[in-house]
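User: Structure please.
Assistant: Input sequence and predicted structure:
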Amino acid sequence: MIGTPVVAVRHARFRYPRAAKDAVDIEHFEVARAEHVFVRGPSGCGKTTLLSLIAGVLTATAGQIELQGTEWTGLSSAMRDRVRADHVGYIFQQFNLLPYLSVLDNVVLPCRFSASRYAKAGDSAEAVRGNATQLLRRMGLGSDFLGRSAAELSVGQQQRVAAARALIGQPELVIADEPTSALDEALRESFMRVLLEACSDAGSALVFVSHDARLAARFTRLVDLPAINSASSDATTAEAT
């Protein structure tokens, strides 16, 4: 791969506290700038754990995991939070929306924690909110939804709000953990189109985890996680996926 990859995993292992065995043991995995990678594998093979390691939510027990050339384990917890806010848009499996905030305020939230994403989203409060409104509209959520609290939304609507939040401010890396699981076929198609177009427009790399093999053809590269994670055959952790 030419240049510094967005994500570089080298000789990395991770074991949950009190677990008997590693959940992740990967010799080498990289994601290039603007590359769209589809990661597949059965439940328990380490998919969500790998995403958490790439995003610096977890840190490797051994080896190196780098984002934009910065190794996560060399950073304090506060610095990891700052780097993540600046460079990573994360579509969580459980969405992690703030139920007491409006739809619009949930989407602009990353720009409150990252000056760089604020600047790329418009560099004024009005422009940022306009950018968020446009993302929501592309996700099929019009002006009627902007003032609603996240708690009022259906699961599928929450999923699309979470995607808009991840995309705002053009982060260098977008991580998506089963983002289409609550969408019907028509919404899934429009969601995938908007997600891939937005990442391409921003030059964002995308790491996308899903059980839905039908989506794989849309991506630059397909990674079968059990093939690169030597711990997956005997993983015994209670992982979300």
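The two ends are 30 Å apart (CA to CA).
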